[in-house]
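go over this:
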Amino acid sequence: MEMFYVFGFIALTAAIFKIIILYQVVTSSQLTSALNILVLALICQNSFEFLSYLSWANDPTFSAYMVGGVFVSLFAVAAAAISLIMKVSESAHGKLISMTYAAFGLVLVALHSQGLIVSGYEQVGYTIIAVEGTWYSLFSIYVLTAVFIALGTLIKGSLASNRQVKDRCRVTLIAITPLCIVAFGVVALRQLGFNSSTALAMPLASTLLVWVLMVDERGDFLRLKIKWAILLKLAASSKDIDLNNWSNQVEKMLILEALRGTGNNKSEAAKLVALNKTTFHRKAEKYLAEANPGYAPARISS
């Protein structure tokens, strides 16, 4: 039973980390709102996991209810993840796909409440395993559908012409791949007749997912990318750098890279370099004119 406590506290730790991450996310757009919903669903899942493992030895009935909560929260997690991905990729049919998938999840919740998805739970080794109900295969389809929609949409988005969409999709794809591997692996192993559990892998993979998405939402990855690009340019042109005009040259590189990284969106670029919009616009106009003869101000979007 000691391992049950270990798994329980892993889930608790994951929930605490997600609460901290949730506190860091500022809700300022539909994208961050979708991220908040996903994080909340994952916190619920980890909390149910913690309670189920902690109470299994003393109160299996209560623990079974908590494991049921894990399953219900899984439906919510998958639906929230699909909704987030549709917003990240700016899919033309994103709302329809999200609503359809959420409706599918609600149907499964109703079936689960009747014991048709999972008929019970049992201890197998160091973990708690769901006993498959009559319609358990629908749950497998639900999970696999989420995996394929997520990966397919993000791969397509990573090839988009819009630079912001492309970069967001690539980061999200990297972040969500471990979670997809865990989900796919568990379903595949169950279909092959092996008992499988996400007790360890799922809390870790989901925490990694929300941390990466939070860091990306704050613009930290883009800032790092810009700094790296500037360092490479400085290294490549070190012989031509005028030391008397060093700060202006670095500032020029910083502003131009910020514009390039945000798809020429001056508002987002100004935030990245911590300048007010008026100052940034004035400097951007100057440096763009220097870098591009015949530059037209309309090239910078609001």
